[in-house]
Amino acid sequence: MATLRELKTRIGSVTSSEKITGAMKMISSAKVHKSQQALQQLLPFKNQIRQIMGHILSSGVEFHSPLIEEREVKRVGVVVFGSDDGLCGAYNLNIFKHLLVELNALRQQYGEDVELTVYPVGSKIVKPCLSLKGGNTDVRLLPGIDSKMEGKRVNDFTEMLRHEFSSGSLDLVKVVYMQFHSIARQRLAVDVLFPVSAATLLEQESGEGNDDRLYLFEPDPNSIFNELLPMMVQSTMNEITIENRASEQAARVMAMQSANDNAKKLQEELQLEYNKLRQQSITTELLDILGGQVER
């Protein structure tokens, strides 16, 4: 049985842990808010591109771009977003499980001979991804590419993927990430980055600002389309990166909340045990005193 001193030490340790998890929860909550602000700042740029694309697509011109070219799929690139820091519960494990499901689905859809290249983003997702290397599956680690990367690096990474697709090194590029909805809710998502799907273009065409007014395009709609399309993909990739970062911090908030609740519960149990042991000790001392008086 633990002594009073040992119990007191354990209670102090649990109290310290509770304070630490509480502080980490506050920090993660602030980072979630920061990511939400970044998403709001990205929204005007995304909406402006969507509006312009809508006007161009409604012009009735036939568009050509290597980014919308669909071809026989023999090589697939899969970008998977994880985290660079721990203490976020089963966040990376859930993403990796979803990645396995997606890779199996690709093999079923395009055959066992399809070449798969995984691009892990975030040090905590790298190790499990490396275990997939072998056969027709490759894992590429890119320097400077992590879950904390900001706009320029995201754009450079997107440009690299665009070059891989345009050159024919990849026939399809998908992104596996955690989509942010709220602190308590994040949803695993898989988006097609290249080729840009017809559904995505139709979404732009039906977007805000697409009215019946006539527009003059200079130089020509197809040239503007080919300039805007990479920008649209870059804005999508930036949004995915920020959403993943917000989801990571939200998962950490929930993990710290769970740890905090467990610490409080343990503290209450230890305090109860301490009080019982202390009461027992006082009772024993009183009995010793009364026994001594009786002997006299």
Topology readout:
Layout: H1 4-57, E1 75-81, H2 91-110, E2 115-121, H3 123-130, E3 137-139, H4 151-166, E4 172-182, E5 185-194, H5 198-205, H6 221-295
Parallel strand pairs: 1-2, 1-4, 2-3
Antiparallel strand pairs: 4-5
Give an overview in words.
Helix 1 packs across helix 5 and helix 2 (91-110) crosses helix 3 (123-130). The model has no long low-confidence stretch (mean pLDDT 88). Strands 3-2-1-4-5 form a five-stranded mixed β-sheet. By secondary structure, the protein is an alpha/beta fold. Helix content is 61%, strand content 13%. It is built from six helices and five strands.
CATH homologous superfamily grouping: ATP synthase, F1 complex, gamma subunit
Stretches where pLDDT falls below 50 for ≥5 residues? none
**SSE succession:** HEHEHEHEEHH
Q: Which class do the helix and strand fractions yield?
A: alpha/beta
- Amount of beta strand: 5-15%
Offer a few descriptive terms.
single chain; 296 residues; alpha/beta; Pyruvate Kinase, Chain: A, domain 1; 5 strands
